[in-house]
Structures are given as structure tokens and as C-alpha cells.
Write a structure and sequence with these properties.
globular, single chain, seven-stranded mixed beta sheet, alpha/beta, about 190 residues
């Protein structure tokens, strides 16, 4: 391992990591309160610029809950925005702790951009190519019929590309790794 990798690993070890199940359980309670309030829609959906940090935290928790299903072990996350990632995951593989930097991307709701789609969003992630460690987590945040066979992605050097989104309000999916042999898993939003 190179010196820069060791320094980065030491930095990641010192971060505060969160359990996605616990975070999403608390967020459900807040979402229920917000839904009953008279707050503006952009506040309820965390779409205001000053709420971006919280929206990305929720998206990180959702991705990690999906990866928990994939890996059969809890995948924790820590917020740390750097040049090519938005958060870091930590999980245990037998006696080894695995850290992975993750870049969040989103196919935004139709109300924000009716032309946004999976293939166009994937084409834009080429700028993150070059790091074998960085994983791209692409949230499909709209109601669409996702044709998994029609997904196109440029060949690039990344740690992985994963899609995740809601199939129904409490039923979620995660699909990946697109750079290898992708599979589909389903998981539930915690109540």
C-alpha cells in the first residue's frame, strides 16, 4: 500500500460512521411529521440548496442499506465530501475492514427535469473514472419502468457502478455492479 493510501485510510478510520437502518428509521419519523406540516414542498423533499447535505445523507443511508442486503453485513457510512466522492462506507469482511469512497449521482424527479434519464446520467460519470476505489451510486428518483438490459454505460476505471431506487414507497431495489455481472436485490425501507 502506498503512503497516500495509508494516510487516506487513517483519515477514514477516524470518521464517525452511521448505521443506515437507524438513520432511516429516524428519518421516517421526521418525514411523517413533515408530511403533516405546512412546510413548502422543496423543504419536505430536501430540495432546497441549504438542505442538500441532509438529502445526500439520506441517499447515502439508502445506498448503504441496499449494500447491506447485497453483502449480508451492515454497511456503515460517514459523510466526507472530497474531490471525487461524497461519503465513505465501512464494512467488515471476515477480519478485514473495508473502506470505499462513494460518489452520489441522481436521475432527478420528473418535476425537476423531465428529460433526465439513466443512460444520460451514466454517460456524465466519465469524469470520475480513474480511481479503482471510487464507487458511483446512482439513485433513480422517479417512477419509470427500468429496462435493465437497455442500460448503457461507458467502460471506465471505477470501483463499481450501482443503481438504486424505490419500486414502491417502502420497497426498494439495488442493481449492480454494472461494471461486472450485475444482479438485482430488493430491500425494505425500515419502519
Amino acid at each position: 500500500m502506498e503512503l497516500n493510501d495509508l494516510i487516506q485510510m487513517r483519515e477514514w478510520e477516524r470518521l464517525k460512521y452511521y448505521d443506515p437502518f437507524i438513520i432511516l428509521t429516524h428519518l421516517r419519523r421526521l418525514n411523517n411529521l413533515a408530511a403533516e406540516s405546512s412546510l413548502p414542498k422543496n423543504v419536505k423533499t430536501l430540495r432546497r440548496n441549504d438542505l442538500k447535505e441532509y438529502r445526500e445523507g439520506r441517499d447515502a443511508a439508502l445506498f448503504c442499506l441496499g449494500m447491506t442486503k447485497v453483502l449480508c453485513t451492515t454497511v456503515f457510512f460517514a459523510r466526507l465530501e472530497a474531490q471525487d466522492y461524497d461519503f465513505v462506507t465501512r464494512w467488515q469482511n471476515v477480519d478485514e475492514t473495508i473502506y470505499t469512497p462513494v460518489q452520489l449521482k441522481e436521475v432527478v424527479p420528473e418535476s425537476l427535469n423531465p428529460n433526465s434519464n439513466v443512460n444520460d446520467t451514466l454517460a456524465k460519470i466519465i469524469k470520475y473514472s480513474g480511481s479503482d476505489r471510487t464507487v458511483v451510486a446512482l439513485r433513480v428518483n422517479r417512477e419509470i419502468h427500468l429496462e435493465l438490459n437497455s442500460i448503457q454505460f461507458p467502460k471506465m476505471r471505477l470501483g463499481g457502478i450501482w443503481l438504486y431506487g424505490a419500486a414502491a414507497p417502502d420497497q426498494w431495489y439495488i442493481y449492480g455492479d454494472l461494471l461486472n455481472e450485475p444482479h438485482l436485490w430488493e430491500f425494505e425501507y425500515p419502519s
